[in-house]
Design goal:
Structural class: alpha/beta
Helix content: 40-55%
Number of domains: 2
Strand content: 15-25%
Number of helices: 17
Strand order of the largest sheet: 7-6-8-5-9
Radius of gyration: 33 Å
CATH class of the largest domain: Alpha Beta
Order of helices and strands: HHEHEHEHHEEEHHEHEHEEEHHHEHEHHH
Length: about 375
């Protein structure tokens, strides 16, 4: 074979190898060519807004709680959430939701108001069983706020009916605090007459209970004859008292604490010997969240009330936490020891109490007519 032919064969062979991709040298592949295709970034969830319809004196608490929840939700889910607030007397808020206010959640002071919404088909009948502690993440009670130095010497319920005493409290027909106040006074009078509340469940003491009820009605009537202003809600009553009207304000314990914290406050808080365990309740408004597709976040919002951060904020704003073990001992010490009774124990629950005392033509209306 000639030299020319040998080189021609080599050139031909290398050309073929080049075509099929073979080489005697190691292959070199660009890192760019070997990198996997970039995964598209998942878009952040769309921002959402929900509405909490609450009662008057929760404004400061929910203002802070809403931001704390929103921050926690954003960290966990990446979703921005805004919680708007609506405030008024508990009964008025319930009627607003029934009439069309699209609240995703309600946080009201009276369980009856949530029952009323349930009967209108806005939420399930089992709403109270959906969250711990019968859907009550915090409790409160009724106390007295008096002028500094307590010039009228008001120490317990019986002192409120002394001659010359003027009282301020909300209207039981529109506000929640006022209904709790009314029932607290009635329960005190029953206990004074009977010595305890066990007699209420004892058929053998029925005659004694009847007489005690008559005395309680008289006492509550005397008390309301001394009320000089009936505002529609507890925040309005607080303002009336700030304006110098009345010797004592009958109000929420947390509202009394807030007023004492204000600069220049010239008040003292009186914890009576006996008071009612007020149990504000919360619920998701099923009809609204199903329409607005906000059930998940509305449920998470209410559940956060029971978390350690939620319960700590509850105590910070002077509500009694449902789970006191989640808060610091010093926060628990701020609450005065009071002998409590429940609405179920003395009145048979909210539906019974509402029908007897606060519905049109009930005992309160009769007392108010007599006052005139």
């Amino acid at each position: 074979m000639s030299l020319h032919t040998s080189w021609s064969l080599r050139i031909f062979t290398c050309s073929i190898l080049a075509i099929v991709g073979c080489s005697t040298a190691p292959s070199e592949v660009s890192p760019k060519d070997s990198a996997p295709a970039a995964t598209p970034m998942k878009p952040a969830p769309a921002a959402v807004t929900i509405l909490n319809a609450s009662y008057d004196p929760t404004r400061e608490f929910y203002s802070e709680f809403n931001q704390t929840f929103a921050d926690d939700w954003k960290q966990k889910s990446g979703q921005e959430v805004t919680v708007n607030q609506s405030h008024a007397g508990s009964g008025k808020q319930a009627r607003s939701v029934i009439d069309g206010l699209e609240a995703d959640v309600v946080t009201l002071s009276v369980g009856y108001d949530l029952n009323a919404m349930s009967r209108k088909g806005l939420m399930s009948e089992d709403w109270q069983a959906r969250l711990p502690n019968n859907s009550c993440p915090y409790t409160s009670t009724i106390v007295f706020l008096v002028r500094k130095g307590n010039p009228k010497g008001l120490r317990d319920w019986s002192d409120l009916t002394k001659p010359g005493v003027e009282l301020v409290t909300p209207n039981p027909k529109t506000g929640g605090a006022s209904r709790w106040c009314y029932l607290a006074a009635w329960g005190f009078a029953l206990h004074r007459e009977l010595g305890d509340w066990k007699a209420l469940q004892d058929p053998a003491r029925a005659a004694e209970v009847k007489q005690a009820d008559e005395k309680a009605r008289q006492f509550v009537g005397d008390l309301y004859r001394r009320v000089v202003v009936l505002d529609s809600g507890s925040r309005g009553s607080a303002q009336t008292f700030k304006n110098g009207i009345g010797d004592a304000l009958l109000t929420w314990e947390n509202e009394a604490f807030l007023m004492l914290k204000q600069p220049g406050a010239e008040y003292e808080m009186i914890a009576p010997s006996i008071s009612i365990l007020a149990e504000p309740a919360v619920a998701v408004v099923d009809k609204v969240v199903d329409k607005r597709k906000t059930r998940e976040i509305a449920q998470a919002y209410l559940e956060y009330l029971y978390s350690a951060p939620g319960q700590q904020l509850v105590a910070k704003h002077f509500y009694r936490p449902a789970f006191p073990e989640l808060i610091e001992g010093e926060q628990n010490k701020q609450f005065a020891p009071i002998k409590f009774f429940s609405i179920a124990e003395v009145f048979g629950g909210w539906d019974t109490a509402q029908a007897l005392h606060f519905d049109d033509g009930g005992v309160y209306d009769q007392i108010y007519a007599e006052k005139k």
